[in-house]
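Q: Ubiquitin-conjugating enzyme family protein, please. Structure only.
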Amino acid sequence: MSQHQKIKPNARSKANSDPNSYKHCKTSPILALKRLYSEFKYIQENPLSHVSACPAPIKKKKALDNLKIMNIYREMNFQVDDERDFMMWHVNIRGNSDTMYDGVVFHAVIKFSENYPMEAPTIRLCTRMEHPNVVDSDRICLDFLEEWKPIYSVHSILMQLQTFLYDGADVTRVLSNIQDPKTFEEKKEEYLSAQEWSMSHAKAYVNRKVGHSNHLPSPPFVSREEDDGFKRMNCKVEKVLANSDSVCFFTKTSDLVGYGINCKKRNAKSLEICSIYCSLDILSLRAFMNYNVRGMSREKTSFTHWIPILTETNDEIHIKKVLHVTKSSLANLSSSHSKKIDFSPEQVIEILPRLMSNCLLQMVDQREKTTNAFMACLRFFRLMIEAIKEIPEISELINSSIDSFIRSEERSKEKVGDLLNFVMLIPFSKFDWKDLYDIYVREFLTRYVKNILKSYKEIADFQCAEVTDDDRVSYSFKSIRKRLKELTLHIYFIQIFSDFNSIESISKFMNENCGILPYQSIDSFIEKLNQIEKMNDFKTFFKLLNEMSSLHVFETHDSVIELLKSCIQSSLQKGYHGKPPTNFRKHIVLEDLPKLTSEQEWKIACNSKWRISKLPYYLKEMKDAWMQLYLQKSMSRTLREMAERNNFILLSGMISRYSKCKCLETCWFNGCQDVLTKILSSLPISTIILKHWNIEYQEKDKGADFETFFYSIKSDYSRRALIESLIFHDSKITGSDLSSFYINFPSLKILDFSNNKIGDNGVSYLADFLKKLKNCPNLTYLDLSHCDIGERGTQRIGDSLLAKKNLKTFKFTGNKSPPALFSIAHSLSYSPSIENNIFTGICMFENIGSFKY
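A: Structure for Ubiquitin-conjugating enzyme family protein:
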């Protein structure tokens, strides 16, 4: 295929997708011969124990009649020991030792037409036989021949013949429709007598044309002795099995094979993919392009598109070829009838994870497909790995998508589609499942609240006395049990690769195992699937998830109840289900804090949950800094939820839970001074970080919250004396707000007003406060960066700094650069504690002119 060639079905393959359309199709003799030759090689490599088969030799007398076939053989370069007629096969069926046919060989002939595999072959017994499925003592009639499909092969026929012979040996099964005991015994004697005649005829049968007799059968049976040193984990065995499963069901070749895909869109002009389904039968590109094979799979499902898979592990040419065809296939899947689009990396992220997820879903729905579905999922997984190795941009897009999911508070269906598809991206990212566990499970359950309420509407009514919390847990699980099973299976699959630290290491591991997983991994996956199938409550669900994740989350019954209540509330806010009842109560969930002992463990927890790897400046000197940072962030999120919903019912419980927290990071409470007073009077707060809640901010209310803060703490000097840091970074504070800054903080060390438009008026209020020696005598850090301060304000703040002898760091970047800047430099020159980096910050002013230090 040329580099610019696109995959487009031709007229023959576009005809229709009727599953039975192949019955009216015609093929060429060349296709039939190629197919039969491939099947002959497969039978030689994988012989059956009680059945042998081989094409008949071509007689020299009929060589001229077969000249056309012989020329085809030479063109296809068939490598056989002698010239054979692949349109007629001789077959031997040997009776099993535990049946009446022990030691007897039945000889048969299979004839194929030039329209094979579209048309079923005919089977005739050379040794006459009395059997329910034998007509006229020699013509075999089997159901699967009447319902023939091109996916069947010679190997399938031989297995059916072997089963057919075993069924005939069971007298009870053959005569099962006879109820009368006397009649049964009579018929039994007749049947056994007929079988004696059949066996004697088979033992006496000789075919000199092929050199066959009962003692020297031709074709001969192949005995496969088990090797004592054989191990299932042997790489050679795995390679044989992996390659044998990568053969097209139609052409029986392994050159550029893949899967048929059924893709549904909203309409003929739409580019949006509504659903995608993978047919689990291997199909070659040649068969998909040139023959009407849609709907011929074993599942009797039609398909509209095709995607290739990798069958070689270290063949760079093969990998590049498959990736090139994959790009065209993904572009076709993303296009519509009216609009063709080119390939883009986003198509890999959108389609391949959906195909992997679909394979796992088929395992849950139809257990008989477990092995084939798992192998298909692994093949798409490996294809995505190779795509990422060739196009690194895919990895960047995946990391960006997951990072946005973790950091964003708005995880709506519009921004993040199907969560099962989304979770399949984790193995290809820099993130781990542990990073998403809590927020992912919450969002997953939130989206299925609607399904729960369809069956049990009363669950959302928390005032209903008839529905207990235990009922909510039980009913909720019953409503979404299947979805939870699907989620658990997806998580287990991605956790198989959790120990690998890079895409390259996963690729190397899969290449060493011939593109699949070792049998131990496959067996453990099937065992885990059995455990998931038995899952019958939330306790088992979270137990399985925690085992996979090595975490201890939602272990208690109360925590599950709180989780469900939170998800119902969140679903209501996001509009996932209808309006709540009039007596619906907004609910807040208090997070379970991890039980950690060392600072290193708290650091890992901060990095895992909050993506923070560096301590902020105000915590660097604190003894248990990482624990304080975790408590600060966790309490901040809880307070934000309370403020958003105006629900502070659980405030006392929150204060009790965060009793060790010394850092308060929160939004304004819109005038709720009682709340802030209670927090400050109950916790040993030493650092306060107040951030304005931008959604609620209105110009007419500016300053009110700042006044509320000072009003809440001015009357309690003992608590105020503990505060060491006040951080008002980007809090929408104006100059008039600072008129309230008149309360002394004797222990205050850090004061941050950066990114607030306080201007000259605001900094003048602050300067009047700071120039008094008794106010903030221990101040070591002052940040007035980007505060829109002009000449007058610079002069005032410069004069006030003379009183702050302990000041070490002063930041003034991003303001105007008037001559009054020299006032600051002059004042700081008298400070014995000032550090050199302060002047680096000052020198960032524009038009610094002749200023020298």
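A: Brief note, in case it's useful. The first helix runs from residue 29 to 45.
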